[in-house]
């Protein structure tokens, strides 16, 4: 059985703002950063990263509070803070420019980075991204806001509850939620500090920057599952392209990694050609 809660042979760490960030890096070509969502980890992109590393220098961090990176001492899980940490990661790795793709929370962080540091990005890919106030909070996250459940969930998050949460986020025909996926999510959530970090994240009042989204000037691709609604990036970001997957749920990069990898590679190739000419 895999021990997901320990570093793997290809694990790397770099200290950013006093926090050892766990990441993996593979491939050659233009830099591409892949950001996972909440209650997830860099393994969310395992299969997509394998495909993309044929053409890109693929960098995948575990976001603070999740995976092997673990909790922030200051418990600051605001999205703009995440974006600043990712900028610090790129500085630490010596990456002056890159494309950034993010799923869910990772997409929220990515577009915040595009607002705060647009010169750093040559492409933005938003995969079922969040950031508009009307986006409904999933049931598992809402439970952490219950004052009676909150201290309990800091101590234990049952494996069965994690499995139910995963199954609720994929498309109706998806078969990706298996024992390995549930074991991975449960082991990583059970690492010291990660449960409390997730509770802190879910109870963080996030600033609403949605009115700033039309200011994004980075070339943008929006990848959305047809079942996901309540977000308007393709409408609000000037010149944004959108592709809609007919069947997948929220975990699109795991449900159809080939579709996601092909879309990203085609988009970034087109963006590079446009910049060249």
Radius of gyration, Cα only, in angstroms? 17 Å
The number of helical segments is: 11
Cα(first) to Cα(last) distance is 51 Å
Sheet-strand content, in percent, reads 15-25%
* Helix and strand element order: EEEHEHEHEHHHHHEHEHH
Helix content: 25-40%
Oligomer: single chain
Shape annotation? globular
Structural class: alpha/beta
Low-confidence regions? none
Please give the largest β-sheet.
8 strands, mixed
Q: What does the model show?
A:
The protein has 277 residues and is α/β, with parallel strands linked by helices. It is built from eleven helices and eight strands. The protein has helices at residues 46-52, 79-92, 105-116, 139-143, 150-155, 159-169, 179-189, 194-202, 233-236, 252-255, 257-276, and strands at residues 12-16, 19-26, 31-35, 57-61, 98-103, 121-127, 220-225, 241-245. An eight-stranded mixed beta sheet has the order 1-2-4-3-5-6-7-8, with helices on both faces. Strand 1 (12-16) and strand 2 (19-26) form a beta hairpin. The chain is globular. The termini are far apart. The mean pLDDT is 94.
Write a concise keyword list for the protein shown above.
277 residues, alpha/beta, 8-stranded mixed β-sheet, 11 helices, 8 strands
Helix/strand layout:
Blueprint: E1 12-16, E2 19-26, E3 31-35, H1 46-52, E4 57-61, H2 79-92, E5 98-103, H3 105-116, E6 121-127, H4 139-143, H5 150-155, H6 159-169, H7 179-189, H8 194-202, E7 220-225, H9 233-236, E8 241-245, H10 252-255, H11 257-276
Parallel strand pairs: 3-4, 3-5, 5-6, 6-7, 7-8
Antiparallel strand pairs: 1-2, 2-4
Helix pairs in contact: 1-11, 2-3, 6-7
């Amino acid at each position: 059985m895999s021990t997901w809660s320990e570093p793997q042979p290809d694990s790397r760490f770099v200290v950013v703002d006093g926090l050892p960030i766990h990441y993996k890096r593979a491939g050659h070509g233009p830099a591409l950063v892949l950001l996972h969502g909440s209650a997830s980890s860099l393994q969310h992109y395992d299969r997509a990263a394998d495909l993309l590393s044929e053409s890109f220098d693929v960098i995948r961090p575990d976001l603070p509070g999740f995976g092997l990176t673990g909790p922030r001492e200051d418990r600051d899980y605001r999205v703009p803070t995440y974006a600043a940490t990712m900028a610090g990661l790129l500085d630490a790795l010596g990456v002056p420019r890159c494309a950034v793709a993010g799923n869910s929370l990772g997409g929220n962080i990515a577009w915040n980075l595009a607002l705060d540091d647009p010169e750093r990005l040559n492409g933005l890919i938003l995969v079922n991204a969040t950031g508009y106030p009307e986006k409904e909070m999933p049931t598992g996250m809402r439970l952490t806001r219950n004052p009676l459940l909150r201290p309990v969930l800091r101590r234990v998050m049952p494996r069965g509850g994690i499995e139910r949460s995963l199954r609720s986020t994929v498309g109706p025909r998806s078969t990706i939620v298996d024992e390995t996926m549930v074991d991975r999510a449960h082991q990583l959530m059970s690492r010291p500090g990660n449960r409390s970090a997730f509770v802190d994240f879910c109870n963080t009042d996030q600033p609403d920057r949605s009115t700033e989204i039309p200011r994004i000037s980075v070339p943008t691709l929006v990848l959305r599952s047809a079942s996901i609604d309540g977000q308007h990036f393709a409408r609000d970001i000037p010149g944004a392209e959108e592709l809609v997957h007919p069947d997948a749920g929220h975990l699109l990069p795991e449900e159809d990694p080939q579709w996601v990898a092909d879309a990203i590679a085609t988009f970034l190739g087109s963006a590079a050609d446009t910049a060249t000419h």
